[in-house]
Amino acid sequence: MDFPCWWCLLTPPSVCGLRQSDSERAGLREGMTGEAMTDEKEAPCVAVYGTDGGGPFVLVSDHAGRAVPSYLGDLGVSAEDRARHIGWDIGIDGVGRALAQKLQAVLIEQVYSRLVIDCNRAPGHPTSIVKISDGTPVPANHALTAEQIAYREDTILHPYHARITQELDARLKAGRPTVVVALHSFTPEMGGLKRPWQVGLLHNHDNRLAVLLMELLRKEGLTVGDNEPYALTDTSDYTVPTHGEKRQLPHVEIEIRQDLIDHPAGQEEWAARLARLLPQAWALFCQTYGVTPGAQADAEGAMA
Q: Pfam families from the entry (predicted)?
């Protein structure tokens, strides 16, 4: 196990930054742009895939990555455990990237593992930096100082959400229609209980787009969870409440069962399905709620 160096422990965060390993640098693939935290030697905390083809969808993926900053070593967690669902949303990276390509949409991914900090939790949330996850202790997350917590927030959480904000602000300024689509995956079983849903759609204060997409998915013979296996709330989630609800933008959070997308064929299948059904759901939304697809102001007015 690699431990933080004494310099990392003694110096302020502004001096001792997150450093990117050679293998992590080599992992920056074609089609992705990485955004560094402080300098060129540090790992990017945000990855942006796809191209903006003029459509309404902005894809976000809070748990797509499983990297760990080098100054944290391996967090005290085995490679096998870090590869489990506790470290990331298995399969959602492949789905998101294929979906971005098919929709000609921008996908914004978090690169770091949710074990470092969960980017779908508000700063200070009790499960933002977990000490134990599904029975697995995370030693590097114990006895953290306020400065250490703030450093993870400032170098990982906040830059990720700032990049989403930047994307949405630019679209709003241009008067473009915008739909926020949050992508996640869930385990087939939890606590000894089988989860029957192949996909779940989460919503909170506004369920309109979720309901329309749900109907389309069920017409394909799928078992679709309505706020299952999780419910989206103001306190349990951060991304959709911040970037969808507060902005009054149409939005939906999609959870896909991991055994269906833990392989390339499944990822392609689900990306193709969502690339076909999301535009249909958006068209129905515009028709049902009197929204002009090309006018963001109308869309926001319908949400008010």
A: FGase
